[in-house]
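S1.2 Input.
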Amino acid sequence: MEPFIGQVQIFGFNFAPRNWASCDGQLLSIHAYSAVFALLGTTFGGNGSTTFGLPDLRGRSAVHYGSGPGLSPVSWGEKSGRESVILITSNLPSHSHDGTLKLGAGPGLLATGDGAYLAANSAGETIFTSVAPAAGQLAANQLAVSNTGSNQSFDIRNPYLGILHAIALVGIFPSRT
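S1.3 Output.
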């Protein structure tokens, strides 16, 4: 079956057949491929007077242009998206952590924590007594949880298969009716 000019097709081999071109964003001569230019224009690049560009599907997923319920609109020829992103703390919503600090009996002035007990930094900062309280709670703003992370990028790509996408340069000129 003869293809439509501008038809994009997937091939299971690693070269574009005769009268087809790889969808790799290359520029073509308007003079040599005027029928293809009539369909694509400069949507995918080129200067519009001597050259025009083919779609570049390297590393990209094709989606139908337009809009639908619950979807963001996509313009014809629009490129968008990233292979990876860096998530930083300002991307995360504000939140808090609740916790329980268990207090127990022990010497009040240890230089370092002993077992499950807290230690005071210096004399005079007694933070617990030798008598175990029935219950205890750390005063507000006494315990801090700091931001952490290394701001490394992480992959957000869907699983993929590298395969040839090619566009027909010769064939039937598509009719709009």
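S1.4 Remarks. The domain at 1-62+155-176 is CATH 3.90.1340 (heat- and protease-stable fragment of the bacteriophage t4 short fibre, domain 3).
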